[in-house]
Structure formats: structure tokens, C-alpha cells
Amino acid sequence: WLRQALCSNVHSDEWLITVSHHFFYTVGNYYPPEERLPPTMEKEVLPILQECGVHAHFHGHDHVTQILEIMPRSENKNPVNRNRGILQIGVGSGGKTNGNVRGDQSGLDEALGSGNVKLKYASSTAAFALVTVTPKTLFLELINYNGEYPFDITVSRE
């Protein structure tokens, strides 16, 4: 059902954004990768999202602030755009004290293969995301509990 729902929009001019409780990858409390949850999200859900051209995926569960770009793997069936990854946005700041950032880019490369997952930002400081979406861009700003804007990113639909 997920593939059918998401892939029906493959050639549309609309953004495709998904939300789930769990993440695909993390540098937070569930790092290193062998300590993470069962691989259902990574093995079953992620390939469908990549195949269907999802632009961004928001998650919670891990109480750290993290932005990762998940690049398509060569074994994925026909990803819509091999040059663009899915932006995974984790802002697990609600309802619990933030956890610790335990991983970094070199650890992700070692565990998952170089270049498959790009760490854009990670912090143990609680933050919320302000997202502005236009027909051509998605602009995301993080706002931490001190009122600071420690990170922003713009994603283009092209």
C-alpha cells in the first residue's frame, strides 16, 4: 500500500514529504548502527521512499536534533533521482530531555559505506524545525531552546 500511495505522485510537481515515529539512521542515542532498532525502516520502507522520489522524511523517537541526507544505493530499484537523497530530519525535542549525539560522519561511513548517508547537522541541544515550502524549494531552519538558529538548509525540487 505504501508504494502505491507514494509512487502515484512520482511525476507530479508536488513535494513528497513523509513522517514517521522512527528514523532510518541516527547519530544519536541509538548509535552505533548495530544498536539501532530492527531494520524494518531501513530495509523495507526506505527503498520504497527512494523509489518513489520522496524529498524529505521527518521523524522523532531519537531525542537529538539531526539532519542527514540518505543517498540512493545502487541496489535500489529505479530511484527517481540518483543525484538527490532523502533529507532525514529528526527533531525529537518534544516530551523528553534530549539525548546525546554519539556518532559522526566517519562512524556512519564505516558502518554504512562511504557516502551513503551524509551528516548535515547533529546536536544534543533541543530544537524545533521551521519549514517553509514553495513550489521550487524547501527551506528548513532549526531553532534551539536558546532562541538561536544553529542550522538551515535549502532543498531544491530539481
Describe this entry's structure for a reader.
It is built from three helices and eight strands. It has helices spanning 2-7, 40-52, 105-112, and strands at residues 17-20, 56-59, 65-70, 86-91, 117-123, 127-133, 137-144, 151-156. The longest helix is centred in the N-terminal third of the chain and has 13 residues, at 40-52. The strands form two sheets. It has a five-stranded mixed sheet. A three-stranded antiparallel sheet has the order 6-7-8, with no helix packed on it. The protein is α/β, with parallel strands linked by helices. The chain is globular.
Q: If you compute it from the alpha carbons, what radius of gyration comes out, rounded to the nearest whole angstrom?
A: 15 Å
Strand order of the largest sheet: 1-2-4-3-5
How would you describe the shape?
A: globular
Distance between the termini: 27 Å
Number of strands: 8
Strand proportion, as a percent range, falls in 25-35%
Structural class, please?
alpha/beta
Order of helices and strands: HEHEEEHEEEE
